[in-house]
Design a protein that fits this description.
about 350 residues, alpha/beta, about 40% helix
Length: about 350
């Protein structure tokens, strides 16, 4: 009887804690209250798409070639804060977007947050800004969105840069992601996990190579966690995970013939290098650069080298890169393909 009462007491306490957490979290995070946290807030702009405000940051001259930067899952424009101004200095109009449900863009409940829907939003975003064609740079989940967009709108893409890009549903196979995808369980767990600075630091340690752990500062944690803390952000994260469905990227990669730069960290444990090798084998005009001592975020971990590679790739009409020694301090290999396209299935 005592054990039963103890179990009931513990269950009641846990239930009360969950109810308190759900009731006290903010409904949303407002841009105006985030200016001290947001990097490059003076470059922030908003555009309305289908009645929803979309946040983006813009650098460089209006008539320079456009680089459109698309972040990954749980991320925002913050992941580009080091490279966006540097790319602009290289002569590009750099536009970093917050996908719907992330950062400081709107997070409508009706949106399904699928890769396909985000790609359609990207098309509308380019239309609203009057951008006919751009080189699109996609990181992780943003790489899947970028690829999907290119498959549906090949004429709108100058070149592609894919950085540790998602190409299938393997990221959803971890124990944690299986749990949060379950109705009820995800709603209960997500506010506690997302609001935990210790958990976020733990995730960062797994995302970045050990040589890049110096990047895990209080400023970084504040910048990442702040736009994720509200109820609408929790909803968009869960809905994205539950509507992931990225298999088309790997299946149809051979249909993409744009000059494509694949940048992968050799020690990427989030989206392992084998995924970059799959894309390199399938994509006609691809180049694969593998960075030594680098994890999932080359644009943060090797910012200067990333800018050098992207600038060189975009500056060459065919998207070729100079051959670099495999004995280089930072680059393990540069592979360049120019294969006959596979027949469409």
């Amino acid at each position: 009887m005592k054990k039963k009462h103890l179990a009931l007491g513990i269950g009641g306490a846990l239930g009360a804690m969950v109810a308190w957490k759900l009731a006290t979290r903010p409904r949303t995070v407002y841009f105006e209250d985030s200016l001290e946290i947001l990097h490059h807030s003076d470059h922030s702009k908003f555009v309305e798409i289908d009645g929803v405000d979309v946040h983006y940051q813009e650098f460089g001259a209006e008539h320079d070639p456009v680089l459109l930067l698309v972040h990954g899952y749980t991320a925002s424009t913050y992941v580009w804060h080091a490279v966006a101004p540097l790319l602009a200095e290289k002569g590009f109009r750099v536009i970093a977007i917050d996908l719907l449900g992330f950062g400081y863009s709107g997070k409508p409940k009706y949106f399904d947050y699928s890769i396909a829907s985000q790609a359609r939003m990207l098309q509308r975003f380019m239309n609203r800004l009057g951008i006919g064609k751009a080189t699109i740079v996609g990181s992780s989940f943003g790489g899947a969105v970028t690829n999907w967009f290119a498959l549906d709108n090949p004429e709108r893409v100058e070149k592609l840069v894919l950085v540790g890009a998602v190409i299938n549903d393997e990221p959803m196979e971890s124990v944690l992601m299986r749990l949060v995808r379950q109705p009820g369980i995800g709603e209960t767990l997500s506010p506690f996990l997302i609001d935990s600075r210790a958990f976020l630091k733990f995730r960062m340690q797994g995302t970045l190579h050990p040589t890049s752990h110096h990047l895990i500062t209080e400023d970084r944690i504040d910048s990442v966690i702040h736009p994720l803390q509200a109820a609408d952000a929790h909803h968009s994260l869960l809905t994205t995970a539950r509507n992931w469905n990225a298999g088309r990227i790997e299946r149809d990669a051979h249909l993409l013939t744009h000059p494509t730069l694949l940048i992968w960290g050799e020690e990427d444990t989030v989206i392992p290098l084998k995924n970059g090798e799959i894309l390199y084998d399938k994509m006609l005009n691809s180049r694969l650069v593998v960075l030594k001592d680098c994890g999932h975020l080359p644009h943060e971990e090797r910012a200067d080298l990333f800018v050098e590679l992207v600038s060189e790739f975009c500056g060459n009409s065919a998207g070729r890169l100079e051959e670099r020694s495999e004995e280089g301090l930072e680059i393990k290999q540069v592979s360049q393909a120019n294969k006959e396209p596979e027949p469409a299935s």
